[in-house]
Amino acid sequence: MIGPSASVHHVNILSDAEPHPGAQVVARIAALLRALSTTMPEGAGTTELARAAELSRPTAHRLLSSLAAQGFVDRDQRSGRWLLGPELYLIGSVAAERYDITGLAQEHVMALAEATGESAFLSARRGGETICLLRHDGSFPIRSFVLYEGKRFPLGVASAGIAILAFLPDDAIERILAQAALEEVHGAAHSAAALRARIAETRRLGYAVNPGLVVEGSWGMGAAVFDASGQPAWALSLTGIESRFSADRRPELGRLLLDHAHRLTRRLAAR
Question: How far apart are the first and last CA of the chain?
Answer without folding.
Answer: 38
